[in-house]
Specification:
The protein has about 325 residues and is of the alpha/beta class. It has two domains: about 180 residues, 3-Layer(aba) Sandwich (Rossmann fold), CATH 3.40.50.720; about 120 residues, NAD(P)-binding Rossmann-like Domain (Rossmann fold). About 45% of the residues lie in helices and about 15% in strands. The strands form four sheets. It has a six-stranded parallel beta sheet, with helices on both faces. Strands 6-8-12 form a three-stranded parallel beta sheet. A three-stranded mixed beta sheet has the order 9-11-13. Helix 1 links the parallel strand 1 and strand 2. The model has no long low-confidence stretch (mean pLDDT about 95).
Length: about 325
């Protein structure tokens, strides 16, 4: 049975992925590791947790040796909007941190999942139905670092035989963990503000369309890809995966079906708008569908219902 290490385990994806993997494998077989944020109590109580710094290779190697890890989900990263404020640090965490994970995986024969992003594309990429294989000229340090990560993972697979796999995530939406400084964070905040205050001020333009995905689908994609038959994988780092193409006004209209008096207005952030404008509004995920059977389970209606119901329940519990 697998013994798994999740880095970035206190982040938006990592916290929920750790929870899902512990339910599947048992808490003692999934080691959570984080660096900056304080871990939630359920993360500490359900299995091993360690504070590590992925830019220091010895901290990764120690955990891999101590727990006899065979699979690493490497999620530690600085996200797009935050990365633009400190690009040198973003490079250090996103690229040097990944290199350290790959080196440890090479030495200890670990498989590695690391997520890429729609940020690896840029203005010169076809922005509608973006192909799996196409020009990638990102204009943000986050995109540059994630594209570098894709190439590094391919290199370690081809050069050393490290079983590296990844997906290009769209914007992710969840009620369980707060967003972490990404350009698509509005799509989380809009639900919380709708339930709490029945209004939201968005930093992107009304008809800014971007690929989005509900977190349960994102978690399932990571796990299913790592369980896929490697002989069927032509692409490894990284697969386009898609679910919904959404804009602020499209999400708002769906929310208004459940909260009729919800209102949406705008105060445009030029930095995040420029980033969003350089990203695809939809991706062609046919390679993932063909090579390992990917398909999303949630659409906008189902996701909105769950988001509103769960945020409302959380609000009522905290009263």
């Amino acid at each position: 049975m697998k013994r798994v290490l999740v880095t970035g385990a206190v982040g938006q994806i990592g916290s929920e992925l750790t929870e899902r993997l512990r339910k599947m494998l048992g808490g003692h077989r999934v080691v959570a590791a984080g660096h900056i944020k304080k871990a939630r109590e359920n993360l500490l109580a359900s299995g091993p947790f360690h504070y590590i710094d992925c830019t220091r290779i010895e901290t990764i190697a120690e955990l891999v040796k101590t727990y006899r890890i065979d699979t690493i989900y490497h999620l530690a990263a600085i996200l797009s909007a935050t990365a633009e404020k400190n690009p040198q640090y973003a490079w250090k965490v996103n690229v040097e941190g990944l290199t350290n994970v790959l080196e440890v995986a090479r030495e200890h024969d670990c498989a590695v999942f690391t997520p890429s992003s729609i940020a690896t594309f840029g203005p010169s990429t076809p922005l509608t139905r973006t192909p799996q294989d196409t020009v990638q000229r990102p204009t943000t340090i986050y995109g540059v670092s994630k594209l570098t990560g894709e190439l590094l993972c391919d290199y370690y697979f081809n050069k050393y035989g490290v079983d590296t796999r990844g997906v290009r995530y769209p914007g992710l939406i969840s009620y369980k963990a707060p967003p972490g400084g990404g350009t698509t964070d509005y799509a989380v905040a809009i639900y919380f503000e709708a339930v709490r205050h029945k209004s939201y001020t968005c930093y992107l333009k009304p008809e800014t369309f971007l690929d989005m995905m509900y977190m349960p689908d994102a978690l399932r994609a990571a796990i299913e890809l790592m369980e896929a038959d490697p002989t069927k994988l032509k692409h490894r780092n990284a697969f386009n995966i898609a679910a919904m193409t959404l804009s602020p006004t499209k999400i708002a209209a769906e929310i208004q079906r459940l909260i009729p008096d919800f209102t949406l207005d705008f105060n445009i952030d030029p930095l995040r708008q420029a980033i969003a404008d350089s990203w695809p509004d939809s991706m062609d995920d046919s390679a993932a569908r063909e090579e390992w059977g990917w398909h999303p389970e949630y659409d906008l209606t189902a996701m909105t219902r769950e988001m509103v119901d769960n945020i409302s329940r959380m609000r009522d519990t905290n009263k």
